[in-house]
Write a structure and sequence with these properties.
By secondary structure, the protein is of the alpha/beta class. Helix content is 32%, strand content 18%. A six-stranded mixed β-barrel has the order 16-20-17-19-18-23. Strands 3-2-1-5-6 form a five-stranded parallel beta sheet. Strands 9-10-11 form a three-stranded parallel beta sheet, with no helix packed on it. Helix 7 packs across helix 8 and helix 13 crosses helix 15.
């Protein structure tokens, strides 16, 4: 997030797009609802009528995969009405002319035909957001999990720069991270193209710094993404997979191919706290300690680094992740000699400029938000106050592109996936909790009443949900939360794994799969 969670309460207009906030981020949702009580206008754009839509002052339901068109249409209106922040654009951005040429091709009447959103609502979003004193945007994986995920995020960046809603309290472009400590994992180099602190592996000086610190020869080649690793196991170019705290059998698209890939690998090692469906396929399972059984830090969605303190000992043979990795490294011939998680944090501060001033002693209390470059730095509440990291913010000319596959007579409905309130991600932890499984313990498929009537399906009927990649069986839930022509299901249940259906087509830049839209058919299951 460019800003802090608490700053939502300072906003007077909050635009939520591609985020089921009350379900997936209830603490953030509480802040947004407090802002609403203080008079902030809430705008929600989501193909499915989520709970936050019922609390919004304006809700629009764009067709799946049409976010760029909608955002370009909003920016067309802002420019047409002269609501842009011209001083901000001239002082702090570049690339505006090329961007403006593209936007001029997205008038509301054209955008309405693409997205299904009324012209009047496009204009109202533009008015409320552009003319707010402090406009804030919240988005999540409904924006990123597309073959146009990068385009979607760039379009949102265009919108905040166009209106000057960035670099001030209560404004900003605020991605809500999909899992706890995803921010921290990325910060620590859990990406194939960077070292900790987003320092590129391809830059010689950066590579040299880490080689000197670690006493090792390092590659300057960008590594593989998870879908590329899966492809590598299938074609034999990847021989082994070491999986830590991940359950790709449920979480990756086209799950049938993921299972086949893991079975083809010469070695699969899984390090986790439960015997997940992925761990059941492993040659070796290494039992890991949970968060309550170890010391360390976690970095949340607002870049806040916080202490995690051991409360109980790990059960059985379970050990902390860093101890397992250190022991394995030593056995493989690369010596590591950390005595505690605090030792590791000291090394992080030495090599990672944005964490340079973060120490265990300073993390007593509420923690620190990076960038925190020195030990006398207070941390950074919001980013881009006076300048962008690259100097001037860059506008991108983004054209609308449709989803990677289309509906047809055989697969006439659009499927999108997401989470239920009671479960988290692949259910590895939440399905162990009886109180949560009592609330929801089976897969369901949401169908619009008109589609259900045409198909002869009622709530609680068993249905078959089929895509070009596979088929699952689940119960129907007839509801107007989804519009005609679209269906929704979750991905928490291995018994009815929704990711058997989803499309592995990737965004060409960051290689994220198109989880959020694919073509399916629904039919009543035979008795």
């Amino acid at each position: 997030m460019t800003n802090s969670v608490a700053e939502f309460e300072l906003s007077d207009c909050i635009f939520i797009i591609g985020s089921n906030t009350t379900s997936s981020h209830p603490i953030v949702a509480t802040r947004i609802l407090r802002a609403r009580e203080k008079g902030a206008k809430i705008i929600v754009a989501d193909p499915r009528r989520i709970h936050m839509a019922d609390l919004a002052h304006l809700y629009v339901s764009q067709r799946l995969g049409t976010d760029v068109a909608l955002l370009n249409g909003i920016m067309y209106v802002i420019l047409d009405k002269g609501w842009e922040d011209r001083a901000f654009i001239e002082e702090r951005t570049e690339g505006f002319e090329e961007f403006e040429k593209v936007i001029k091709d997205y008038p509301p009447e054209k955008v309405s035909k693409i997205t299904g959103v009324d012209e009047a609502d496009i204009e109202k979003i533009a008015d409320w957001y552009a003319n707010a004193e402090r406009g804030s945007i919240a988005y999540c994986m409904g924006i990123t999990q597309h073959t146009t995920g990068v385009d979607n995020v760039k379009a949102l960046a265009n919108l905040v720069m166009l209106t000057g809603h960035i670099g001030r309290e209560g404004t900003g472009l605020n991605p809500l991270r999909g899992q706890n400590n995803v921010q921290g994992a990325c910060d620590m180099g859990g990406l194939p193209n960077v070292y900790p602190g987003y320092q590129p592996v391809s830059q010689f000086q950066i590579k040299e710094k880490f080689e000197s610190a670690w006493g090792a020869t390092l590659s300057d080649k960008v590594g593989l993404t998870i879908p590329e690793m899966t492809k590598g196991m299938l074609d034999g170019s990847v021989k082994a997979m070491y999986i830590v705290g991940e359950n790709p059998i449920l979480s990756d698209p086209d799950a049938g191919h993921v299972e086949e890939a893991l079975k083809r690998a010469e070695l699969v090692v899984v390090q986790d706290i439960f015997l997940t469906p992925t761990a059941e396929l492993a040659h070796v399972v290494l039992p890991a300690a949970s968060f309550a059984e170890k010391d360390g830090t976690v970095t949340n969605t607002e870049r806040r680094v916080m202490r995690v303190r051991k409360a109980v000992d790990p059960p059985g043979e379970a050990r902390t992740d860093w101890e397992i990795l250190m022991d394995l490294s030593n056995r493989l011939g690369y010596s590591m000699d950390y005595s505690s998680s605090q030792d590791i944090m000291k090394e992080i501060a030495t090599l990672t400029p944005s964490y340079g001033g973060i120490t265990y002693e300073r993390l007593e209390g509420e923690g620190l938000q990076w960038p925190c470059p020195t030990e006398d730095h207070p941390g950074t509440k919001f980013l881009h106050k006076d300048r962008f990291v690259r100097g001037k913010g860059l506008f991108h000319a983004i054209e609308f592109k449709p989803p990677a596959e289309a509906v047809d007579d055989e697969f006439p409905l659009w499927l999108t996936t997401g989470r239920a309130y009671f479960h988290f991600h692949t259910g590895t932890m939440t399905r162990q909790a009886q109180s949560l499984t009592r609330e929801l313990d089976e897969q369901y498929v949401e169908l619009n009443p008109q589609d259900a009537q045409a198909l002869g399906i009622s709530t609680e009927d068993e249905v078959l949900l089929t895509s070009r990649r596979g088929q699952i069986r689940a119960k129907a839930l007839v509801t107007d939360r989804v519009k005609q022509g679209e269906v929704f299901t979750t991905f928490h249940f291995v018994e009815s794994n929704a990711n058997i259906l989803t499309n592995p087509a990737l965004d060409p830049i960051v290689k994220i799969p198109e989880f959020k839209v694919c073509a399916v058919r629904v039919e009543r299951a035979g008795v």
